[in-house]
Amino acid sequence: MTAQPSASLLGFPPEARLLIVNADDFGLHPEVNEAVVRAIEDGVAASCSLMTPCPAAAHAMALLRDRPEIPFGVHLTLVCEQPGRPWGPLAPRALIPSLLDAAGGFPSFEDAPGVLARARLDEIEIEFRAQLHAVLDAGLEPSHLDWHCLADGGRADVFELTLELADEHGLAVRAWLEPSRELLRARGLPALDHDFLDSFALDVAGKAEAYARALRELPPGLSEWAVHPGLGGRASQAADPDGWRVRRGDYEFLTSPRARELLREEGITVLGYDEIRRAWTERRRGRSR
């Protein structure tokens, strides 16, 4: 049986050019939070992903509380790539020893393969539930689940676990890699038709032109950009010396008139994960009949 095109599942003609623009790392620090909100309210981003263990997560949740129209997901994390501003688990450490480094926090991004090799699935579930419930207990309603620095969770069983959590709470799940996308298609769910774009993979020099070219060349079907806007002020530079230029470049393009003009000229429809969630909800209702 041939899978229905993702565009059709989302209510668009098959030839439509659809682009998810999701701002990752919401909660990292206040200047990132401000940039994410502006990129959605004044720019072309359409949803975001919140890292609940991060130092500015409470600030991010306060911004969301004042803006219930902003779709957001939970950016599930098991690593910390900023040793100068470390973050750790939300679950009790005694319950998740396989996820911790020697200092009792999340390991560095460079140790991600080691994390994946030793992490117990039951402990991952405990931590993921704690991160999800940080927003649910705050009275916020997420649209989806995704992962920080680990594409599709980094392991097939972690992806399946996340799907189960999403089903339990009526959420969508980001899927970037082809095995995961095939799994979603087999379940009649919309999945990306093309390789995703992670803004950290683009050169800082010439980024605006790279984005413009990507829009002009965007093929029909469903695509996704994971962007990382940041204001790039002194606080950002101190907290994120290796990444603030990436984030500033993203912010500048996403909030530029040129971005909107290109989308209009190219006839591209930008989606947030609230629209993906709605399609998943309709599919779940169909299965329950």
UniProtKB/TrEMBL annotation:
InterPro entries: Glyco_hydro/deAcase_b/a-brl, YdjC-like. The keyword Transit peptide does not apply. Its cofactor is Mg(2+). Keywords: Carbohydrate metabolism, Hydrolase, Magnesium, Metal-binding. Pfam families: YdjC (PF04794). GO terms for molecular function: deacetylase activity; hydrolase activity; metal ion binding. One of its GO terms (biological process) is carbohydrate metabolic process. This is YdjC-like protein. It comes from Nonomuraea wenchangensis.
